[in-house]
């Protein structure tokens, strides 16, 4: 296979507006330097106690829970481009306001608004991809967006740590600037893609009547509860197992490296496979990887489990968004994507709660339960497979 043919298989055939959306996503994630360090900013930059910082971050979580639902409805009612652009402009303004907030009421307000707007672009972005890309190419397109998010976030994490040493104000201005770039790029280079529809009504009252989508969302919630342990209980459990933070960070870097290197190489292959079976397999592999974490006592052991669950993560990368797009009527793609995003936001709240309680019992209690939740979700998805295939066939016409 020639280099040209190889590249065509990986990234060819996708329209220019998609690449503008992809580029904006990458720039935005490159500038995501505030969120990973917000706890440090509150305690060191603003001199808050850990308890007070926890309260402020809890308010951020409340905003995030509402974010996907609100943005999903707006995506269908006022349009994809307007919702994405408005969300990014609001994010830029809120970043600056948060950076200069000094009182507790101001910090609480800014953090709630930031949780509400920072990821409001996601339902609009997911709906745009579904509008722009044929069903056959959607797994590849969603996978490329996943790759851009991971690459940008990895670089942003590294840069954010350095910038924080120079002064926290830099973080807010850079994050605001990249949000603004994303907004301008989409507004100028991506046309409004919302389809005209004679169907009546938008919103979650309609989406929640779709039993298939509701059950699929529960599957996504199970998957998200498993994955969110990477940023909640996994660091705690590994330090309790005797690893230093440096050893943990080194092992976790493997996750980002594998995604950046491997995921683009397999995206076109994954796109040709059955969606439900592939996603179920990915969730199962991910769950087994986390289950094996119960036996980790060294950096090498952790690295091996990370290879396993990262393989599962790569397998599911572009599939979930593809399934949501296949289940949704065209005029409700934003609302369906919003419900999908809500499952992840809810998992971010629930994962540390149940994970912390289980870890207090024992590492095995935590990791075997996490594995069980994931395997049940994978089995449920296999059961849904025929219904997903039937709906996808109907919505293609």
UniProtKB/TrEMBL annotation:
Subcellular localization is given as: Cell membrane
Question: According to its record, how does it sit in the membrane?
Answer: Multi-pass membrane protein
Q: Which CDD domains match?
A: MFS_MdtH_MDR_like (cd17329)
What are the entry keywords? Cell membrane, Membrane, Transmembrane, Transmembrane helix, Transport
Where would you find the membrane-spanning parts of this chain?
Answer: 20-42, 48-70, 106-124, 144-164, 170-190, 211-228, 248-266, 278-296, 302-327, 339-359, 365-384
Q: Which Gene3D superfamilies match?
A: MFS general substrate transporter like domains
Q: What is this protein called?
A: MFS family permease
